[in-house]
Amino acid sequence: VFPGFTGPVGIVFSHRLAALILTLGVATLTVWCWRQRAARPDLARAAAITFAMLLLQSASGAAVVFTRLQLFTALAHGPASGGPGGAPPPGGCGAKAPDPRRLKTAART
Fold first, then answer.
1. Contact 48/30 with Cβ under 8 angstroms?
2. How far is it, in rounded angstroms, from Cα 71 to Cα 65?
3. Nearest to 58 by CA among 41, 73, 37, 39
4. Is the pLDDT of residue 83 over 50?
5. 37 phi/psi in degrees, rounded to 5
6. pLDDT band with cut points at 50, 70 and 90 for residue 89
7. Which residues, other chains included, contact 84 with Cβ-Cβ below 8 Å and sequence gap of 6+?
8. Which residues touch 101 (CB under 8 Å, ≥6 apart)?
9. Res. 10: pLDDT tops 70
10. Taking the model in full, what pTM does it have?
11. What stretches of 1-109 show up as alpha helix (H) in DSSP?
12. In this structure, what DSSP letter does residue 82 have?
């Protein structure tokens, strides 16, 4: 059943859909890197670690659902994925915030 992409249900559904697509992509790359491990063992090791971390992140997301948004599990899942505890600062990652004086000047013109 497709719930659509609107409202809170749509946000949750699109999050799960994006997680599925990401997992399939990382799994595919991990298999490819593992086949190349004779020539590039460092790449195979990094891919395996990345896939393991992705599975841990997915498990913490499943724990959020099964514990019905218990605080500890929600916090454990959030910061690693850029959620409330791991959100970038205002202005983005490494970007400077706009100068308020310039905003006032631009608003007057």
1. yes
2. 12
3. 73
4. no
5. -65, -25
6. very low
7. 78
8. none
9. yes
10. 0.66
11. 7-35, 41-66, 71-77, 100-108
12. T
Handedness of CA 92, 72, 13, 56 (dihedral sign): positive
Amino acid at 102: R
For 15-49, the pLDDT digits (tens) are 999 999 999 999 999 999 999 999 999 999 999 99
Return the pLDDT at 98. Answer: 60
Buried b (16+ CB within 10 A) or exposed e, 7-32: eeeeeebeeeeeeeeeeeebeeebee
Cα torsion through 69, 71, 75, 81, rounded to 10? 10
